[in-house]
From TrEMBL:
Every EAL domain range: 33-286
Species assigned in the record: Fontibacillus panacisegetis
Positions spanned in the full protein: 293 to 579 of 579
Protein name, per record: PAS domain S-box-containing protein/diguanylate cyclase (GGDEF) domain-containing protein
Length: 287
């Protein structure tokens, strides 16, 4: 790794004097990846990761229905690094298994802490990468996170992406088992992957989360509106709770409410909050 990094640094320096900008750009990206990959284990050991929580809202009652845990990396040199920049790298290197285990435990621990403090009891949802889900120890990891933190499984939700649903044989037993334990399962980023409707129907899922790209141009684009409506109807006809992600405006909120969507998440109601602000939000919803 050291050699590769040195070689890349050299190549980068040379390419600086080179008109082939594209090569330089690629080299830079590659170098950055190698550096992030190298720093991840230390960052975990040093406690540089933190969970933020984004509220989920019932459209009808405008009340809190849950919280999604979203990871943040507070790097001492670079400041806060977004998950989009390091999760894919952690997935490629396999480190996501360890990191995901930390997220699970931390989300369960924090949720239990809020419950013990007398806040309203809400489910916390945790994003699970396909690589993490496929790992033979995954179910065991979930069990031990629940056991060690004492969180009731009904207050844990797992969000998996659509691509995973294309491996129904491999995942069905795990999903069935998790469901039997009372853990709720959501399909994340719906509409961006390719999943068979047959599997959607056969697998034990509870929530369909419509990807933000379908909400973005609503309600100004009539084409997107009808697409969005079809997805809501699909979800409802499969008996799922339908949640729209990335809701930013009042107009989007009203459109979704009018058309039978159950829940929303998005900047319109709240950005993801650190655990302190989340506790304050929970306290404000106590009565
Ligand atoms: P996601 O699961 O689809 O999470 C939603 C993302 O949309 C979050 O970005 C959130 O901050 C952002 N968002 C929420 N409301 C709005 C809105 O109204 N407008 C816009 N423009 N964006 C909104 P974030 O926190 O940067 O996370 C990005 C992705 O990183 C997540 O997408 C998820 O795929 C992944 N991720 C985050 N935390 C974890 C984790 O603990 N484990 C795994 N495996 N992946 C994670
Ligand atoms: Ca998610
Ligand atoms: Ca999502
Ligand atoms: Ca997404």
């Amino acid at each position: 790794l050291k050699h590769a990094e040195l070689a890349m640094k050299e190549a980068k320096n040379e390419s600086l004097h080179d008109p082939h900008y594209f090569d330089y750009y690629l080299m830079d990206k590659l170098l950055e990846r190698v550096q992030i990959e190298k720093k991840l284990p230390r960052a975990l050991a040093e406690g540089e990761f933190e969970l933020f929580y984004q509220p989920k809202i019932n459209l009808e009652t405008r009340t809190l229905t849950g919280l999604e845990a979203l990871i943040r990396w507070n790097d001492p040199e670079q400041g806060r690094i977004s998950p989009a920049a390091f999760i894919p790298i952690a997935e490629d290197s396999g480190f996501i298994v360890q990191l995901g285990e930390w997220v699970l435990r931390e989300a369960c621990r924090t949720n239990k802490m809020w419950q013990d403090a007398g806040h309203p009891k809400l489910p916390v949802s945790v994003n699970v990468s396909a690589i993490q889900f496929r790992h033979p120890q995954f179910v065991k990891t979930v069990e031990s996170a629940l056991q060690e933190t004492g969180l009731d499984p009904k207050y844990l939700e797992l969000e998996v992406t659509e691509s995973l649903l294309n491996e129904p044989v491999m995942i069905k037993d795990k999903l069935d088992f998790l469901k039997s334990r009372g853990i709720s399962l959501s399909i994340d980023d719906f509409g961006t992957g390719y999943s068979s409707i047959y599997y959607l129907k056969e697998l034990p899922l509870q929530v369909l989360k419509i990807d933000r790209t379908f909400i973005q141009n609503t309600p100004t684009s009539t084409r997107d509106n009808s697409l969005l409506l079809s997805i809501i109807q699909l979800g409802k006809s499969l008996g799922l709770t339908v949640l729209a992600e990335g809701v930013e405006t009042e107009e989007q909120f009203h459109f979704l409410r009018q058309h039978g969507c159950d829940q929303i998440q998005g900047f319109y109601f709240s950005r993801p909050l650190d655990s302190c602000s989340t506790a304050q939000l929970l306290a404000a919803h106590s009565d």
